[in-house]
# Entry
Amino acid sequence: MLTLNAQKMLALALFNVPIGRFLYQKFFYRFREKGVAFEQSITYQVQAILSEAARIGLVAYLFDIIEIWLEVGGFKNVPDISKIVAQLMYSTWIAVRIRRYRIGSRFVDRAVKLKRNKKNMVSIIDKISDFFIFGVLAMIWIDILKIKRGAGLSSVFALSGAGTLTLTLATQDLAKKALGGLALASSDKFAIGDNIALGDGTVGVVKNIGWLNTSIKGGDELVTSIPNSQLSNIRVTNRSNQRYSQVKQTLRFDYSDVDRIPALVATIKEEIRSSCPEVVTDGSHPFRVVWSNFEADHLEVSVDCRLRCPPIGDKYAEARQNILIAIARAVKKMRFIFAMPTGTYKNWVDYSSDEEKKPETTMQEEASNTVNEGS
# Structure
């Protein structure tokens, strides 16, 4: 039969939350009228803590039963297993609960409304709190388990000069990565959720800034993990921070249309101005459609626009597409034809001609050689 204490713990573990939900729905109606659900109420938080504590007590009680069985079975000097397990589990549980209600977690919703450097500061506080919470937990575990320094462990704490140097070199890269993580979190280079482009060509959304690595999710849905020590020494472009973006195109036209190029330039510019509302046309940013160059096989027209959106996302893609449609509409309206890259076309024609003429030339050469031999 279960003892009275075990019965109480079992009742708390299994029925505490259901009873609390029943009482909340029946008597605490004034909170329900304010739209506060039971799972979001203080009542639920308190009862959930009591239920978790009771479950841990039941586990410790199970070890207490095992300890009694061992003593009845004739085992001597059985350690107080239930007490050790209870201390370890409760200390770990308390550390996890403290971590769950740390400053960063409690103010995460508020941090979204703050400036970017404030959100990064919350991340720094979370990382530092993790370090201290689990550091204190480790010391508590050592004290509970009565870990003593033997000869081997004492030698670690009494390292010689060479041993200290070895340990320093071994942890150097780890320390650089950890310091890099704190530096990134405290800087305003980027934050979680930003779309960035790195100097090595990596482009994507920042998913996590950890102690040692930063995870970036690319457009192909692949997540790349980059050491923080590398990010501190690489060029970073935060595309989410940009208010404007650029769309630039180079158009090619034939020399036969040289007299009509000025009219085409004006038509393209007016078409973009009238049909692309995202393009900045008030003179605060460049908006150019110009005849830019004479090339060997074509005339070159450059289109350079600025958009009122960052160079990411569907809005940018649609605005860019609208500019291309406007250019195509203006070219069609003026009855122009885009010039093909004649250099490439000429090389292809020459190659095709050589391949087609090669058998005929070979037959003619063989016939000529035969005639010469006969004569």
In short: The domain at 245-333 is CATH 3.30.70.100 (Alpha-Beta Plaits). Confidence is low (pLDDT under 50) at residues 108-114, 148-154, 355-375. Strands lie at 195-198, 203-209, 213-217, 223-227, 236-238, 245-253, 288-294, 299-307. The radius of gyration is 37 Å.
